[in-house]
Write a structure and sequence with these properties.
Protein name: Tex family protein
Helix content: 40-55%
Number of strands: 15
Radius of gyration: 33 Å
Organism: Cyclobacterium jeungdonense
Pfam families: HHH_3, HHH_9, S1, Tex_central_region, Tex_N, Tex_YqgF
CATH class of one domain: Mainly Alpha
Distance between the termini: 54 Å
Structural class: alpha/beta
CATH superfamily of one domain: Tex N-terminal region-like
CATH architecture of one domain: Orthogonal Bundle
Shape: globular
Length: 753
């Protein structure tokens, strides 16, 4: 199949035109990135967005891999001298890797099996005769195959050998496998049981001690939980339909008559199913279910990561950052408006030292000395106590006090990146720097941390790690390029994610900047060693140079369109600089006048929008958030309290919310809204500020149940009495609640506690 056929197939699957697919594929093959294509080549792709461009890329990759496998299989069968025109057509028509491997199975080099041993004993003709089901007496036919020299000593041994061969023929029948695979997916069930004797040891998996549910509807988190329990040797997990259904399906396909040969084939079917087909199909279905579960979990993680990366930045402010603690004190650093390190100290305002006066005096001194505009406090141990201490100092009201999610800061502080940035400071100082910079610009700081360690995932260590990495890399790249990067202040890690750059060119840019001073124009970026025309084309539109020689260098307008902007300004009788400062004048530009072969209305509209807000950060404006005063620990919580909180993580079963007690509470899916919802993302997002009602407090297990419903306890008169469940509803076995230990594991992973 040529790429033309691939384009047609992808267009049909994605509901777009074939021309859009072929044009996008051409750009991808030339090395263009997804952000560049979706932003600056809209006329070429027919305005495909990032999601569509990525879908074309991924599906094209799959189809090309399938094509390569077809070529390898044809070559293998041809070398065996068994390739026919019919077989070639079947291989060419196979649309999935599973169907392709089914076709290849009879020709695939295999280890020595029961069937091959039987063939070596000369029993294949007997198997052929029996499989035809024309002989009424296979026992009589088998007599002539009894041969001691060939290790066939009895009629039963001859028949058994023939059945072994037949079982393998059935196992290698592509149509049987196709139908059976469909049955396993549509009618198969996950059946989970605890391994006897491990009930106490496996208590966190108690919901799965005796559980079953359909394969096709099992949600991602339960599939991954059951597989983890099996991997840890706590659960036994079986996958498949009822055996009688599977056998009946094969019999309908294979059985032809009703005689003694038919009975021999029936025995071969039963043996072949248990020994060959069921294990094979179960493996395939497990792979299918795992892939489906992985995709769902990765999607959740990627969306959470996107929301976290695009959190509102405080911006260029002088920040005093505190990594709070009790016994070891609070590590304090002062950062300049560009995030540069200025000073670090350790204060002891909390127990056991309780040096509040000395600590307060030092904080006040640093605030005044460095013109501090905001104080960032990590939300870990002693955070609420430290926040209360800072608020008691009587600092100028203009100085913001903000609690910052420090998840992943410890990972950063021990990383090679942190050691490279701050070789002379220990982990605690680096962690405080990360907390402060995270307040100033979450995106710029979080890209320095392995995305898996940021703490917004679900079962991220159980999913396909390559697929996870690819998805998270796409997400980070999308966010970085969507916001844009100030080339004169960006770290190497941030520049790495700019379209067309990567680690090597990012390092070269930083080295050039360090040696030659700040870039004065985008054009100067071309002087960076090894940064060629192609890389410049891909990256330039996403790099910003504030207060550069050309005012357009601080915008998202690509340099290739500077001439067009100059023409627009000339036509309006003003300079480019004046045009950028006059939004009303920008709105008067007659776009149709500038439509040409390479530039259409989609690009012109993007340019017009950018001219109206050149270089403006697309993220939401920063808003200060405060937890409830006096609610510092889990023991302070009472049922019915209504508290402010921040969403820290979203899973398929609900959302975790920080209410300021060092332990996130869970708002279960059923408690997220007054209406029925399937996906938590319908109503919440990471970093969203919410109001929650405390529904459950289990101090021993550190378990907090929360609700976002308007009337979570159902006390409103207008709601009336709740309906009693019907007998049928009571009889249905409820879904297992997500193991609280699993949920707590997510929290431990987030906060390192």
């Amino acid at each position: 199949m040529s790429d033309l056929n691939h384009y047609s197939k992808i267009a049909s699957e994605l509901g777009i035109r074939e021309k859009q697919v072929s044009s996008t594929a051409a750009l991808l093959d030339e090395g263009a990135t997804v952000p560049f294509i979706s932003r600056y080549r809209k006329e070429v792709t027919g305005t495909l967005d990032e999601v569509q461009v990525a879908a074309v890329r991924d599906r094209l990759h799959q189809l090309r891999d399938l094509e390569k496998r077809k070529e390898a299989i044809v070559k293998s069968i041809e070398e065996q001298g068994k390739l026919t025109d019919e077989l070639t057509k079947k291989i060419a028509a196979a649309e999935t890797m599973s169907l392709l491997e089914d076709i290849y199975l009879p020709y695939k080099p295999k280890r020595r099996t029961k069937g091959t041993v039987a063939k070596e004993r000369g029993l294949e003709p007997l198997a052929t005769l029996i499989y035809s089901q024309e002989s009424a007496s296979p026992e009589m036919e088998a007599k002539s195959y009894v041969d001691a020299e060939k290790d066939v000593n009895t009629i039963d041994e001859a028949l058994q050998g023939a059945r072994d061969i037949i079982a393998e023929w059935i196992n290698e029948d592509a149509e049987v496998r196709k139908q059976l695979r469909h049955l396993f997916i549509e009618e198969g069930k996950f059946v989970s049981k605890v391994i006897p004797g491990k009930e106490q040891e496996a208590i966190k998996y108690q919901d799965y001690f005796n559980w079953q549910e359909p394969v096709k509807t099992a949600p991602s988190h339960r599939v991954l939980a059951m597989r983890r329990g099996e991997k840890e040797l706590f659960l036994m997990l079986d996958t498949g339909p009822e055996e009688k259904e599977a056998l009946l399906l094969i019999e309908k396909k294979v059985l032809k008559g009703n005689n003694s040969s038919t009975e021999q084939v029936r025995l071969a079917i039963k043996d072949g199913y248990k020994r060959l087909l069921k294990p094979s199909m179960e493996t395939e279905v497990r792979v299918f279910a795992k892939k489906k579960a992985d995709e769902a979990a990765i999607k959740v993680f990627a969306e959470n990561l996107r929301q976290l990366l695009l959190a509102s930045p405080l911006g260029e402010k002088a920040v005093l950052a505190i990594d709070p603690g009790f016994r070891t004190g609070c590590k304090v650093v002062c950062l300049g408006r560009q995030g540069q390190f200025l000073q670090n100290e350790t204060i002891y305002p909390n127990e056991p030292q309780k040096k509040t006066m000395e600590s307060g005096a030092l904080v006040k001194y640093m605030v005044e000395k460095h013109g501090i505009e905001a104080i960032a406090i990590g939300n870990g141990t002693a955070s609420r106590e430290t926040e209360a201490f800072i608020n008691s100092l009587g600092l100028p009201k203009e100085v913001l006090v903000v609690m910052v999610n420090e998840s992943g800061a410890s990972i950063y502080s021990a990383s090679e990146v942190a050691r490279e940035e701050f070789p002379d400071f220990d982990l605690t100082v680096r962690g405080a720097v990360s907390i402060g910079r995270r307040l100033m610009d979450p995106l710029a700081e979080l890209v320095k941390i392995d995305a898996k360690s940021i703490g917004v995932g679900q079962y991220q260590h159980d999913v396909d790690q390559n697929a996870l990495k690819n998805s998270l890399d796409d997400t980070v790249m999308s966010c970085v390029n969507g916001v844009g990067v100030e080339v004169n202040t960006a770290s190497k890690q941030l520049l790495t994610y700019v379209s067309g750059l990567g680690p090597s060119l990012a390092q070269h840019i930083v080295a050039y900047r360090n040696e030659n001073g700040p870039f004065k124009s985008r054009e100067e970026i071309k002087k960076v060693p090894r940064l060629g025309e192609k890389a410049f084309e891909q990256a330039a539109g996403f790099l910003r140079i504030r207060n550069g020689v050309n005012p357009l260098d601080g915008s998202a307008v690509h340099p290739e369109r500077y001439g067009l902007i100059k023409l627009m300004a000339d036509d309006m009788g003003v300079s480019v600089s004046a045009l950028l400062k006059d939004d009303q004048l920008v709105q008067k530009i007659p776009l149709e006048k500038y439509v040409g072969e390479e530039v259409g209305l989609p690009t012109l509209k993007d340019i017009l929008e950018e001219l109206g807000k050149p270089g403006r950060d697309p993220r939401n404006r920063f808003e200060v958030f405060r937890f409830e005063d006096g609610i510092n620990e889990i023991k302070d919580l009472k049922i019915g309290m209504v508290l402010p909180g921040i969403v820290t993580n979203i899973t398929q079963f609900g959302a975790f919310v920080d209410v300021g007690v060092h332990q996130d509470g869970l708002v279960h899916l059923s408690q997220l809204a007054d209406r029925f919802i399937k996906d938590p993302n319908e109503v919440v997002s990471v970093n969203q500020k919410v109001k929650v009602t405390v529904m459950e407090v289990d101090i021993a297990r550190k378990r907090i149940g929360l609700s976002m419903k308007a009337d979570p306890f159902g006390k409103s008169p207008q709601k009336g009495k709740r309906d009693k469940p019907s007998g049928k509803q009571r009889a249905n076995k409820p879904e297992p609640k997500e193991s609280m230990e699993d949920k707590l594991a997510l929290l431990k992973q987030k906060f390192g506690k």
